[in-house]
Amino acid sequence: MIYDFDRVIKRRGTNSIKWDVPETELPMWVADMDFETAPEIKEALVKRAQHGIFGYAGLPEEWYQAYREWWEKRHHFRMEKDWLMFAASVVGAVSTAVRKLTDPGDHVLVQPPVYNAFFHCIVNNGRNIAESPLIYDGKNYRMNFEDLEEKLADPQTTMMILCNPHNPIGKIWDRETLARVGELCHKHHVVVVSDEIHCDLTAPGKGYTPFASASDLCREISVTCIAPTKTFNLAGIQTAAVVAADEVLRQKMWWALHVDEEAEPNVFAVDAAIAAFTKGGAWLDALREYIEENKRCVDTFLQKNLPEIRLVTSDATYLVWLDCRSLQNGGRGLPCGGTRDGSRGAASEGCMQESSQGMDAAGLPKRPDFFRFLRETTGLYLNSGSQYGTGGEEFLRMNLACPRSIVEDGLKRLLEGARAYQRLS
User: Fold this and answer.
1) What b-and-e string marks burial along 21-53, b requiring 16 or more CB atoms within 10 Å of the CB?
2) Tens of pLDDT along 192-212?
3) pTM
4) Residue 363: which residues within 8 A CB-CB, separation 6 or more?
5) Range with lowest mean pLDDT among 186-200, 325-339, 396-410
6) Contact (Cβ atoms closer than 8 angstroms) between residue 136 and residue 160
7) Contact partners, residue 132, CB within 8 Å, separation at least 6
8) How far apart are CA 193 and CA 255, in angstroms?
9) pLDDT tens for each residue of 128-152
10) Which domains, from first to last, does the chain contain?
């Protein structure tokens, strides 16, 4: 079957968070796709809707089987049925894990630049953020194991949130790296919560290693959060799962998910997941090819027309991480960042005003933040790298899960905005 990923589907006026922006803006920010989900999933949801009764839903054997067979076939990881627990969302499950598996005042370690919701899950639950920033050499990212162990050795650090594959940089962590993380966390009595929601969105021919499969230690000290939602564009359905092999961790998570009312599926959540993992493979493989071509399109365009912005090499997610340091610095001082939630609130507005009117070290007027300048002058709405924590400054995140024509429009706006930004000097 041929899937038409080039078809532009109107999303304005559908209560879409992504597209609830002015008509002149092009949203390429939040991580949801502008593609219809797989036809088999759509068919399953329509069939369920036609039943007409939407009472409380349970978890049939098929739900467990769908997850287990998908992970064993696709990712060579065998999960036992009793390791699996339903959760409404991955972020909700991560927040539950932070609250249940740590104590108030504990440190929870993250590796920025990293998914901004982790910061909220930590702070909103009364825990402290511990950062072990990734090392960026101008081309690739890697973990700083010396710094990581130093942070893990702090007795107050009791949890590490791992992003595997890593959002926003698109890094697939190899087995050796994951096993080393497991050894260090075990050594220092730190529980690992692994967010693996992007695991199926790898480049064609590329696989990922589930953290719990990297070693026996990794399996024993971890809780993994997985879902079909990013893979099949089902975020609004609210369907995910938590995997915990260790009985103590599993019992704590099971209880906490029920206390938080995260463990009861809505009437569409089960059917969507089963259809995705039993019938969505061909659609996903075609999607991965299309996303990879979108990435090549962006890379070629930047190299030819805008070498001041560099596409960071990645093997996973439909998001690309744009290195704008050459464009933004230009000897005119560093721009300030936006808010971590990407909002256009008072704090961000104040930052814009300060950077526009302030002076840099050379006594010249500072240029405005490129993220805000780009949106205000061209309507291109990306994610500011600042919201992903330390190391995200001077980067942008761009969502390429959209028809090629939208990608091309976004690139034209990016070029227009960059050239106008350079003229400010």
Assistant:
1) beeebbbbbbbbbbbebbebbeebbeebeeeee
2) 999 999 999 999 999 999 999
3) 0.92
4) none
5) 325-339
6) no
7) 109, 110, 111, 143, 144, 147, 148, 151
8) 16
9) 999 999 999 999 999 999 999 999 9
10) 26-30+282-423 (3.90.1150.10), 53-278 (3.40.640.10)
